[in-house]
């Protein structure tokens, strides 16, 4: 029996997400009450999704590694941390050993918080549990301790509930979504940046009166705002910078156009592959939603959803269109940062969506806050990239020899994973105790003075 | 045999919430004997994807005047009011 178990463990460890996750997902779906046939198909589809994502990531790594090395040679700047995009981050997070357990853990945390009346949010957005798995994976990578990673994932799930409650009234009134909150750890961490920017901008005469019209910006950018075109243009720019001296005109042209098309392909294919992962997860998330809604009782509950439902707002779209060139520029000039941005330029609307209620959709302020958050993010990402890379290996993604390190804006640029990982890095298990204490203190003051906190996050005063 | 209808499903990513909506729609409408094709896209791509589409279902706000009916709904994500939205969708498809 022992031999059998250790052999099984070896198989799971070596095959990673393609084998282990389908098996776990099958059982989790069954426990939550999904029909066996559906649960089985869900598991198989998830395995397929990982195979597909692996193929596309291989294409991207190949293309970006070559141009990354050429850039180092030509421009003398070290940009060896490649942005692989949030779809890769999500797949990596679900594929790690922490990711295997994140769904039951986060559901338990949510039910516990509802029973204790510590939250009003019922987080039915199972898909975005990947953020908790991501934080847990960073902690597991930095400490080498799976238990710490699992505890960190549970704390991250609690943090998401707190941030969702705190911002709920602001989101509901600004976006017109009664009864909804957003426990999404790419979006909610922006609130402190928005509070700071508002405070700062209010003090600067002239700037504090400035506005811009979102519709005009959106119309002017038109097709440029589409990820595929964005990927093509970035590929062409990187190609010209990296390969202009690669040989005769024909060689240069082929390399530059080839890179442009490769990166455009990644922008279209990667989200498609990840949507297969989402399709596989659906029977689980439907079963989990029914399971939790049945147990939530009849009191006032916010339903926690993906911030994807906020992104169509003109303020979010226009702000992110303006932030794309800013982000690329920062990526090229920031001293000490080693990150080259690419795949995650399409996620910027998620980063800025929670600014909008606080800033009444004022794009000038949103762009300033977004620039600030990205600026800090480059350094967090540079620091976290070795952890990110080792999480990818843990999840069984194949990386080429001498591969670059990897990161992504969602969530490699954000402070929650960096905070968790830094504290555990320096303090071990006490780091987790401090995170729990900080969260407890924040929740205590929020519950004591709910109204004032909600207004601080952008809720209307009345 | 009525013509097969095409529904464009939009959200912020074309990955997460639109997959839930698209797969639920396919399943529910198939159970009622209605044959539909769904396509998914980001909110920013709707304008380029609109040709040949009979109906847009979205989880996030879209710009106006697309020339086809648009239904914005969270019912497939929250499970609340799903039946009413399905009726609305079937009417919009003029079946």
Q: Could you please describe the fold and organization of this structure?
A:
The complex is a heterodimer of chains A (462) and B (95). Helix content of chain A is 71%, strand content 3%. Chain A contains 19 helices and six strands. In chain A, strands 5-1-6 form a three-stranded parallel β-sheet. Chain A has a three-stranded parallel β-sheet with strand order 2-4-3. In chain A, 57% of the residues are buried. Chain A has one domain. Chain B has 95 residues and is α/β, with parallel strands linked by helices. Chain B has a single domain (5-92), classed as Rossmann fold (3-Layer(aba) Sandwich). In chain B, 36% of the residues lie in helices and 22% in strands. Chain B has a four-stranded parallel β-sheet, with helices on one face. In chain B, strand 1 (5-11), helix 1 and strand 2 form a beta-alpha-beta unit. Chain B is globular. The interface between A and B is medium-sized, with 40 and 30 residues.
CATH-scheme architecture of chain B: 3-Layer(aba) Sandwich
CATH topology of chain B: Rossmann fold
How would you write the strand order of the largest sheet of chain A? Answer: 5-1-6
Largest interface: A-B, 40 and 30 residues
CATH class of chain B: Alpha Beta
Spatial order of strands in the largest sheet of chain B: 2-1-3-4
User: What is the radius of gyration of chain A computed over CA atoms, rounded to a whole number of angstroms?
Assistant: 22 Å
pLDDT < 50 runs, ≥5 residues of chain A: none
Number of domains of chain B: 1
List how many beta strands of chain B DSSP finds. 4
Helix content class of chain B: 25-40%
Count of helical segments of chain B?
Answer: 4
Helix-strand category of chain B: alpha/beta
* SSE order of chain A, one letter for each helix or strand: HHHEHHEHHEHHHHEHEHHHEHHHH
Largest sheet of chain A: 3 strands, parallel
N-to-C SSE string of chain B, H for helix and E for strand: EHEHEEHH
Helix/strand/pairing category of chain A: mainly alpha
- DSSP, total strands of chain A: 6
